[in-house]
Amino acid sequence: MNKQDLLNEYKRQEDKMCLSKILDKIEASKIKEKIETTDFLDMYQVALVENFLRKIKFENYKLYGGYEEAERKVAIIYPDKYDEKMLEKNYGKILKIVRVLLPEEEYGKFAHRNYLGGIIKLGLNREKVGDILVSDEGADIITVENFANILKEQLPSLTRFEASNIAIEGIQNIKKKEIKIEEVKIIVPSLRLDNIVSDLARTSRSKAVQIIDQERVFINGQNETKPSKQIKLNDIITIRGKGRFVIKSFDGTTRSGRTVVVIEKFV
Fold first, then answer.
1. Are 75 and 27 in contact, with CB atoms under 8 Å apart?
2. DSSP 8-state code for residue 171
3. How far apart are CA 170 and CA 173, in angstroms?
4. Helical H runs in 133-175?
5. Computed over its alpha carbons, how large is the radius of gyration of the chain?
6. Which of 10, 75, 91, 236 is most buried by its number of CB atoms within 10 A?
C-alpha cells in the first residue's frame, strides 16, 4: 500500500501532515540505516502516531520525552540493526536539557506558563521544546539536541531570566518533578466524560464539551472526543491545561441519585 492510500482515511489535514512526516522518517531510516527523529509531538499527536504505527504493524520506533511520564515526546525511528541498548545510547544525542537556575531571591517566582510564555515571546519554535519541569529553583526545559544552544543564548534576553544561570545538561541529568497527589471528591449526575470534565476543570458542562471537542482530553493516554464516553475505575484522565487525574473509587450515591467519585489529582 502506498503512502497516499495509508493516509486517505484521515480527514484532518494536520493528521495527514503529521503521519506523512512519520512515513518519510521510516523511509529515510530504511535507506540510510540510521536513526531518524521528529520534533516534539503533543499528547494528541503521540496517540495518533502510536495508533497509526500499530495499524501498519511497524515496530522499529520509540516515543521518548526524556522521562517516563513525559507528555510531549519525539518519535524515534530506527533501522533493524538497532536493539534497545543501542537505542538508549543515542538518547543523549537526541535530547538535551536547558537548565534555568534562578537567583536565590527569585526562588518560587515563576510557574510553567512563565517559561513557556518566554519561549513563545522570543518567537522560538514550540515543536523544538518538550516538557518543562519547574521547581522553586528554576526549570529543566527539554529540547531536541540542535535547539539547546539557541534556547540557551536567547533566554537571557528576557528580563525575567537575565540574572539566571542557564546551562545545557545531558538528558540523563534531568531533575524529575516530585509528584504530589491530592485526593478530592466530586459529585456527578452520571459517569459521562463531560460530567467528569466539568467538575475537574471547574467549568460548565457546555464548556466541558468544548474542551473535549478541542481534543484536550485524554483517557489512559488516548485522545477522547465523545462527551458520552463512560468513565471507569482506575481511568487516568488528562485535561491539557488543567492537569492529570485518576479515578480511584466510587463512593456511593446521594439521595438524588448522583454518584460520588473519589479522584487522585496530580499537583
1. no
2. G
3. 6
4. 148-154
5. 21
6. 75
For 48, the grid coordinates are 495518533
Crossing angle, helix 205-213 and helix 193-200, to 10 degrees? 110
CATH architecture of structural domain 181-266 = Roll (3.10)
Q: Which of 126, 19, 130 is nearest to 77 (CA)?
A: 19
Contact (CB, 8 A) for 238 and 244: yes
Helices 13-32, 43-55: axis angle to 10 degrees equals 60
Residues 55, 43 contacting (CB under 8 angstroms)? no
Q: Which of 144, 131, 145 is nearest to 175 (CA)?
A: 131
φ, ψ for residue 180 (rounded to 5)? -115, 140
Report pLDDT digits (tens) over 139-189.
999 999 999 999 999 999 999 999 999 999 999 999 877 677 899 999 999
Q: One-letter amino acid identity for 140?
A: D
Query: How confident is the model at residue 266, as a pLDDT?
Result: 84
CA 110 to each of CA 68, 160, 163, 238: distance values in angstroms, whole numbers, following the listed order: 24, 9, 14, 23
Q: Which CATH class, in words, describes the domain spanning 94-173?
A: alpha beta
Identify whether the C-beta of residue 232 lies closer than 8 Å to the C-beta of residue 247: yes
Q: Are 126 and 119 in contact (CB under 8 A)?
A: yes
